[in-house]
Amino acid sequence: MAALVVTLLATVGLVATPQATAAPAVPSGFVIREQATGQAAYDLTDFGYLPGDGGIITTGKGGKVTWISPAGAVRTLTTLAVNNEGDLGLVGLAVAPDYASTHHVYVVRSVRTSTGTNFRLARWTVTGSPEPTGLGSEQVLLELPMTFNVHGMTGVVAGDDGTLWVSIGDSSEFRHGFYDPRALRALDVDQLYGKILHLTADGAGVAGNPYYQAANPNSARSKVFASGFRSPFRLALDPSSGLPVVGDVGWETWEELDIVQPGRNYAWPCWEGNHQTGYATQFPAECGPVSNQAPIWEYHHGGAVDQGNSVTGGFVYTGKSYPASYQGTYFFGDYQGEKLWTLRYDSTGKLTQAPQNPPWATGIGGPVEFAAAPNGDVVFADLISGNLKRVSYQQGNIAPIAQATSTTNAETRTVAFDGSDSLDYDGDLLTYSWDFGDGTTGSGKTVSHTYAAGASRFTATLTVRDPLGATGTTQLTVAPSNHSPQLTLTPPPSDTYAVGEQISLAATATDAEDGALAVEWTSRELHCPDDTTCHSHPGVGATGSTFTVPFPDHPDTQLLITATVADSAGVTASQTYTASPRQHRLTLSSAVPAALQIPSENNANTAMVTEGVTLDVQAAATASDGASTFTAWADGPTERIRTLKMPATDLTLSAVYATPIEQRYNSDAALRQSLGAPTAPEVSDGGLRYRVYEKGRLYWSQQTGVHEVHGQILAKYLALGGHAKFGAPTTDETTTPDGTGKYNHFVGTPGTGTASVYFTGATGAHGIWGLIRDKWTELRREQGPLGYPTTDEQTTPDGVGRYNHFSKAASIYWTPATGAHGVWGAIRGTWQATGWEAGPAGYPTTDELTTPDGVGRYNHFSKAASIYWSPGTGAHEVYGAIRARWSALGWERSYLGYPRSGEFGFDGGRRNDFQFGYIQWYPNGTVIDHRW
């Protein structure tokens, strides 16, 4: 319950290990199929599909890396050295988008060093060709010291744009009721713990990151995309917005799912789900100012049907193998609960369909990673069994297509059969059964059979079967004593085409018995929105020695052109040429994260698209921040949904969104006049954005809205650290009630609390924040006895306290022991004359208060001291033993009345004079009081 799922092993002992159920419960029409991985039970952690039906790579917690061939055979590639204590080990894998040319994969593991253990992200090269045989050429991209053996670097995703997304936990103690201050690192963007990172392929920060530093792209903050995570276990990218969606494993009570916005703080350890934790009480200074970023979904710990104990983030389904209603559905699971849920959300991240109760599927095993099969099926790594499990829709299963060819050795009556061209559009492994037509059978993709002397012709049948029992058959005539026709196909020089380009082929055929044969041409359009989610349509045909046809205008299409000949015995020969699309990458982007979709490409925001194809693209009306609105495409069109023809190069289309800053500036003529023209582009920094104008700035955050800052207040704000110190403004520059001053309020940060900058012509601009500002507000700000600040908050000479001075001969002083208190007027004058806090009084422990008789005023101070004032006596300090005696007598209500002097030397001792007498102290400890 407390940690990343791989911690939940029985050997760790954090919680009970879930027990596999006899059979999973899934909705009608769905089945779960298992695939052996070569990983042991409780060791399988991650997996990735290699492109082009290249098989699957898996990782094991103990360091083993295996490859599963398309036929299901398993090979161990290597065993990497790891520290696999607790959450640690080999836990993450991503296949590079350019794997076909680079053979790169990214691996997350924990490695022992001379000083301890480090979390490491590295790029490896898969060796061997055409089948993988090992890993080599490690290049370390990111390394981080482990400080506790849970909540480490848990995963990596390789984006289509070549960038990497990495999840890192807080690496702190997980025990319930124990408050580890290391967990607070999750809030600090200058530390990598508790973060979602966005990196280049070489491990630097991505330039668009919210805290990116152009001068230092390798700094921690340059790499941070979002903060405040405990154990972000498994993330995937939303296909339309490109934002990470992550499961964050809970602590005491709640599991959560987050759609991760750039620069947002998801508030661990101060918050868990939508609820404050005990950290908020234990660390009030750090947690007090932290506001929660609500998850898209949370669920309670426990064993009830709608509960669980260890969330595993999933992915958005975009395949074609499930019913259409599942398009855009997010699948995720719970390891300990052996459950699978779905939910849906809109383009702004708002939940539109809550998870099912009871769950979508139960008893499924322990999911620790979800990914899509080539046809879109949900596949997950089951830690409990060590197998991959694939959720398939049986009722929507597409039957395979059987295709076969034969070659005859007439002298021996031996026929070689080949079923390699058989297809399964669901990407399933096929089994091959042969009926040779003479009463005998065989199995295998390729077989050979020798026919007995006798009959001159047979009909052979190939039956292919997928794992769900669907079959396809084909028949072919064989004549064992007849030579097979010899067909020669002359292909064109290129295999790739743009829409409309002509494809020209030639073919000749001869036969030992019949001589030259006529060639018949057929064609078939194969549409594959996913690698193996395909369907086909018959195309045009012809006869003759040549064939010419234009490449079709349809996304994701191959054109299969087959030349076929038949001899007089009915034996056929054929060859197929595949014309593939010449594709370029189409990418939809925006400065503000938004749902940008290519509908013909499963609503993804980037895809390889055929040159010359006509297609639509669309941008959401409102960006993912819920505030920025679509205005146009950067190249001119103003319609959100536009049609284009794919050019002969890669193409990036940028959607332009009017941010809240732009919306306010464009709609407010007076503001435009006040600020002048913009002088720089809008800048994003964390969850805050700002833009610089000739005479000021506009700032925006989701919490505060849009507000302007200008003039001397802006200059002071920036001089004191700007939004990095005080956060975004919560007001425009506003006139004070007395008409004299101006101010902006600011939301504050954990280090400052709420802040303000006040300005008058007499005092200038000064900042006031935190507890001193709270006290000033309590004392009615500038309308009260203090007036306007004349200093920023300063540190006292002893380094203990903080203070602001104010225009009405007033101050507020603060220390951790005394809190914040105001002192002003004559009392402050006397305190100043005696040396401020360094003198005999110390720091104020009260504001200026009225004496019980209503005549005088006083402040108490930290060194057992007070300063009292009355109209008749003025302000005088009294402290130490003399103050103790006066207090015992009843203060100013005693027979002595108010002090009319400070303490002074007299007759070998010390003395204060009062209205009606005096108190004198002697070095031997004697204290006397006496009337005049």
Overview of the structural elements:
This protein is mainly beta and 932 residues long. It has eleven helices and 71 strands. Strands 36, 39, 40, 41, 43 and 44 form a six-stranded mixed beta sheet that branches. A hairpin with a 5-residue loop joins strand 33 (458-465) and strand 34. The radius of gyration is 38 Å and the shape is elongated. Residues 1-21 have low confidence and may be disordered.
Task: Give a brief rundown of this model.
This protein has 932 residues and is mainly beta. Helix content is 8%, strand content 42%.
- Terminal Cα span: 77 Å
Radius of gyration: 38 Å
Shape: elongated
Which structural class best describes the helix and strand composition?
A: mainly beta
Main β sheet profile: 6 strands, mixed
Outline the low-pLDDT stretches. 1-21
Oligomeric state of the chains? Answer: single chain
